[in-house]
Design goal:
The protein is of the alpha/beta class. Helix content is 34%, strand content 20%. The chain has 2 domains: 241 residues, Peroxisomal Thiolase, Chain A, domain 1; 147 residues, Peroxisomal Thiolase, Chain A, domain 1, CATH 3.40.47.10. It contains 13 helices and 16 strands. The longest helix is centred in the first third of the chain and has 16 residues. The protein is globular. Keywords: Acyltransferase, Transferase.
């Protein structure tokens, strides 16, 4: 008997690839990087990042509430609106007490913190906004989305670094299977392309230094990769209990069939050298889905472009899935959106299954000879994917794996 899964009935995306699901999908399939020099990062050791296109029209639709929100909450609301519309849901008609919200973020409203710290330093305490904390707290994107739609069920923020968005989907699935909710708006959001955040990652040695050609700086699995590229993004998926989706005749894009999570307990920032935690998470996810490893047809890799992280992840994939499923990594195009990345990549994985098309790994000019997985190169690869895996790993040793299957 197949274990129960939960239905993915809606997707909303705001990424450097574009505002909206379709714009992001087209850009990811193009294989063209989005990183560019940023005026806000001028004169810093790393002065480029992946930014969301101008939001003027989308923010206008938020009307007067936009001004009081940090950017990470703004883009979360835009993505949530698209996801709810995609799911053909009417918030005026749903049972609000059975609707939950869970959004992951790594930093929360770091842009607001940065701006208000500058005001305190330059002008004094009386110039600090009373909205500083409502804008900056990590739970506020989830709170604002719940407020927007009148969702009265549980709401939560997951903060597990670069696994935050994926962990939001794990928790949402748990709520649904436990009967706490009928619908959960789940995903991640991040808008941390601020000088302090960028310098902090640079000091760790985590960022790419390929400033001669920023668009090609993010190079997952490439022999010349030297770090990730900062990005901002938001992704919201509408998850529903399968019986609830069937009862209302909802369009089901995919089924979140299983999840796995583990902790390395090895190092604050470096992954376990043997990928032990990632292996456990993958095995747990497949077991929860009632699937065998040989049934996996595709992997959306975490693939940050760091020398150590990519090598370990590739080894885990080749060891655990030796039949050689296709592998892609979207960060070559979209950059690394930290707490949003797991949700963005989950959404792209679902679209890959729906479109029967695997996007290429961007900027992969010379594959690392030690990476022995089936990387999709140069252009999208037509492939019917019945079972797919999406990996997310974060500082602190967090490992999260999601398994999706065709409905």
């Amino acid at each position: 008997m197949t274990p129960p899964g939960v239905a993915v009935t809606g997707i909303g995306l705001v990424t450097p690839g574009g505002i909206g699901r379709e714009a992001t999908w087209q850009r990811v399939c193009s294989g063209a990087g989005t990183a560019a020099l940023s005026p806000e990062l001028r004169d810093l050791p790393v002065d480029f990042c992946c930014s969301v296109p101008p939001l003027d029209q989308a923010l206008a639709r938020l009307r007067r509430k936009a001004w009081r929100l940090d950017r990470c909450a703004q883009i979360a609301l835009i993505a949530a609106r698209e996801a709810v519309a995609d799911a053909a849901l009417d918030p005026a008609a749903w049972d609000a007490a059975r609707v939950g919200v869970i959004l992951g973020t790594g930093f929360g409203g770091t842009g607001s913190l940065w701006a208000q710290q500058a005001r305190l330093r330059d002008k004094g305490p009386e110039y600090v906004s009373p909205l500083l904390h409502p804008r900056s707290l990590a739970n506020m994107p989830a709170g604002e989305v719940a407020l927007e739609f009148g969702a009265l069920g549980p709401s939560l923020a997951t903060v597990t670094a670069c696994a935050s968005g994926a962990d939001a989907l794990v928790a949402a699935r748990g709520w649904l299977l436990a009967g706490l909710c009928d619908i959960v708006l789940a995903g991640g959001t991040e808008a941390a392309n601020t000088p302090l955040s960028v310098v902090g990652f640079h000091q760790l040695g985590a960022l790419s230094g390929h400033r001669d050609d920023p668009a090609s700086a993010s190079r997952p699995f490439d022999a010349d990769r030297d770090g990730f590229v900062m990005a901002e993004a938001a992704a919201v998926l509408v998850l529903e209990r399968a019986d609830h989706a069937r009862a209302r005749g909802a369009p089901v894009r995919a089924v979140l069939a299983g999840c796995g999570a583990s902790t390395d307990a090895h190092h604050p920032t470096a992954p376990h050298p043997g990928g032990a935690g990632a292996r456990r998470a993958l095995q747990q996810a497949l077991t929860a889905a009632g699937m065998s490893s040989h049934e996996v047809g595709h992997v959306n890799a975490h693939g940050t472009g760091t020398p150590l992280g990519d090598a370990i992840e590739a080894r885990v994939i080749s060891d655990c899935l030796p039949h050689g499923p296709s592998v892609t990594a979207t960060k070559g195009v979209l950059g690394h959106s930290l707490g949003a990345a797991g949700a963005v990549e989950a959404a792209v994985t679902v679209l890959t299954m729906q479109q029967a098309l695997v996007p290429p790994v961007a900027n992969l000019r010379r594959a690392d000879p030690d990476v022995s997985v089936d990387l999709v190169l140069d252009k999208p690869r037509p492939q019917q994917v019945d079972l797919a895996v999406s990996n997310s790993f974060g500082f602190g040793g967090h490992n999260t794996v999601l398994v999706f299957r065709r409905p």
